[in-house]
Specification:
The chain is an alpha+beta fold and 164 residues long. Helix content is 18%, strand content 46%.
């Protein structure tokens, strides 16, 4: 059974920028969500995937990811994600034998920067870089779907306030 064991953190400062080993641009769309389970389509560079994830138990969840034709991925983003496609640049930052993913969001989540690390085991010891801030692995307000909902609500309340 394929498992994803991941911890997520806020980024405390820009110290990570001096160690970037590579970067990719990612477009991400949520197709469906049901009681913590989700189906997502993603395009990164010239590759498209569809991913099914179970609800998270601590830092662990089941994850199935499959390559799909690029044109199918584009069509799914366009027609199945209700216009809520997230754009980000993922930077790969090595530290203490591990590679961190630092996601810098564009578009509606502009200004959000999160760092993630995938682990071999849930109890694995981890050396945190100096640029890592508060851990938000178990905080639902930092899930992408909730960040997006918060931004949409804020945008709507601003828009309503200016239409009156």
């Amino acid at each position: 059974m394929p498992l994803e064991i991941e911890r997520k953190f806020l980024v405390a400062n820009d110290g990570w920028k001096t160690s970037i080993a590579g970067s990719i641009r990612i477009r991400d769309g949520l197709i469906a969500s049901n009681n913590g389970h989700k189906a997502r389509v993603r395009i990164s560079d010239a590759k498209a995937t569809i991913t099914l994830k179970s609800r998270r138990i601590g830092p662990t969840r089941t994850e199935f990811e499959y390559a799909i034709p690029f044109s199918d991925g584009e069509e799914m983003l366009l027609t199945m994600c209700d216009g809520h496609v997230l754009d980000k640049v993922r930077h790969f930052v090595p530290h203490a034998g591990a590679t961190w993913h630092v996601d810098v969001y564009d578009g509606i989540l502009s200004g959000v920067v999160l760092a993630e690390i995938e682990l071999e085991r849930a109890d694995q010891k981890l050396e945190l870089p100096a640029w890592i801030g508060k851990e938000v692995t178990g905080d639902p307000s930092y899930r992408k779907v909730n960040l997006l909902a918060q931004r949409i609500a804020a945008w709507r309340s601003t828009k309503v306030g200016t239409d009156g």
